[in-house]
């Protein structure tokens, strides 16, 4: 469910139990840090006051980066990402827009809009959903480290909308981690904002939408595809779905894997503590953190997920294993969820329970110890029972990060070829 990290890390640093990845787009890598020609400038577009307005209304658009095709290629090559689909340089903008919070109240969110610096005036749109991040400053609209796939897809000729989600980037409040419903409303509203912002920047979106995402974002991409197909984003037509390593089966696969070794402890501690503290604001899982977390972690865990702490800092202040983090009673609930905990899991477990009218490709890796490949296989079976055209594309003996690096160029070619 996690993303990003540092381009200078060695393969050994990324082994299970050692990798604490800063969140961004290409898990465990910081793309283009060396070639960031950031063009920060006053807002290119501004509109609306602080209150009122409609969902998806653009508040502001700020240029944040520009790269030549050669710079994009060099950055991707350093990560081992194929560059055969690259055609143009790119221009990236932070878009602030109106949306709603989990309770349906008006709020704002931010996201990254990336456009090719060339090609035609009319563009298809890729929606790219990022993976788990605990630090708001690592979101795509803020951090250069979180923009790899946006640059890849834009250089191939698409507009790219990458929502930060609620409470990340420059949006207010805390991130409601793994609340699929609000991640989808923020993503749908980012589509609307991207259409308006692109128009004001001299480009037109043709309505064709290609949805992808990594890890947490894979789950969001599946749910977004459903929302678009059911008419929640008028003017957009879903063309293809290509999520990577998504936690589509929390109750049956992901959460039980926290106890049987399929998920490494470093990642497991971060995921379950983030999930419980965020979901407790939406579901009454506990009244006191001590009901779920052991001492001394119960006194500090909620404060660690304020959007300001880095993942390395969070992990240093929590237990080394899931077993040592949670109370005996709650640890047993990981394999037999009940009550509000079960409700929270099931609310996110229906992203594959529908029939897409478009082809679906689920990318995953055999050695993924963050989001085991069983998630993709369960999703595929569920989709197939609905009559969907779905394939699981096993990326081989690669881990969570490796599955994404392997899948990205394939998705870019697919979106630009037969899926177009």
TrEMBL record:
Keywords: Signal
Gene Ontology terms, MF aspect: triacylglycerol lipase activity
Claim: Lyase is one of the keywords in the record: no
Any one GO BP annotation for this protein: lipid catabolic process
Range of residues in the leader sequence: 1-39
UniProt KW 4Fe-4S keyword: no
Entries under InterPro entries matching the protein: AB_hydrolase_fold, Lipase_secreted
Record protein name field: Alpha/beta hydrolase
Organism annotation: Streptomyces griseochromogenes
Lineage: Bacteria, Bacillati, Actinomycetota, Actinomycetes, Kitasatosporales
């Amino acid at each position: 469910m996690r993303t990003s990290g540092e381009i200078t890390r060695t393969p050994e640093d990324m082994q299970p139990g050692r990798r604490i990845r800063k969140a961004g787009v290409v898990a465990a890598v910081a793309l283009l840090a060396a070639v960031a020609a950031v063009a920060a400038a006053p807002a290119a577009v501004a509109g609306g006051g602080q209150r009122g307005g409609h969902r998806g209304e653009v508040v502001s658009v700020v240029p944040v980066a520009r790269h030549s095709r050669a710079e994009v290629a060099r950055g991707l090559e350093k990560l081992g990402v194929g560059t055969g689909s690259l055609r143009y340089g790119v221009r990236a903008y932070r878009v602030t827009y109106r949306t709603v919070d989990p309770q349906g109240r008006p709020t704002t969110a931010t996201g990254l809009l990336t456009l090719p610096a060339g090609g035609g005036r009319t563009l298809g749109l890729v929606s790219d959903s990022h993976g788990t991040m605990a630090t708001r400053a690592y979101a795509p609209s803020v951090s250069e480290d979180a923009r790899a796939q946006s640059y890849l897809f834009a250089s191939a000729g698409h507009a790219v909308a990458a929502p930060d989600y609620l409470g990340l980037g420059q949006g207010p409040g805390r991130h409601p981690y793994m609340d699929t419903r609000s991640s989808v409303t923020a993503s749908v509203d980012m589509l609307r904002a991207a259409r308006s912002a692109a128009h004001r920047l001299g480009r037109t979106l043709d309505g064709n939408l290609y949805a992808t995402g990594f890890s947490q974002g894979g789950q969001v991409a599946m749910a977004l595809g459903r929302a678009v197909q059911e008419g929640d984003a008028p003017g957009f037509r879903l063309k293809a779905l290509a999520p990577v390593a998504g936690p589509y089966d929390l109750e049956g696969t992901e959460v039980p894997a926290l106890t049987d070794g399929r998920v490494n402890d470093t990642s497991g501690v971060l995921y379950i503590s983030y999930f419980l503290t965020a979901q407790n604001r939406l579901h009454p899982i506990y009244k006191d953190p001590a009901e779920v977390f052991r001492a001394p972690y119960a006194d500090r865990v909620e404060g660690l997920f304020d959007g300001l702490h880095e993942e390395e800092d969070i992990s240093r202040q929590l237990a080394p294993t899931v077993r040592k983090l949670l109370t005996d009673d709650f640890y047993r609930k990981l394999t037999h969820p009940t009550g509000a905990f079960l409700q929270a899991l099931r609310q996110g477990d229906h992203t594959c329970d529908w029939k897409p009218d478009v082809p679906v490709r689920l990318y995953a890796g055999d050695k993924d110890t963050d989001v085991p490949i069983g998630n993709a296989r369960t999703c595929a079976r569920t989709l197939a029972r609905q009559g969907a055209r779905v394939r699981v594309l096993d990326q081989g003996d690669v881990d969570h990060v490796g599955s994404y690096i392997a899948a990205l160029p394939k998705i870019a070619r697919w979106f630009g070829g037969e899926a177009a």
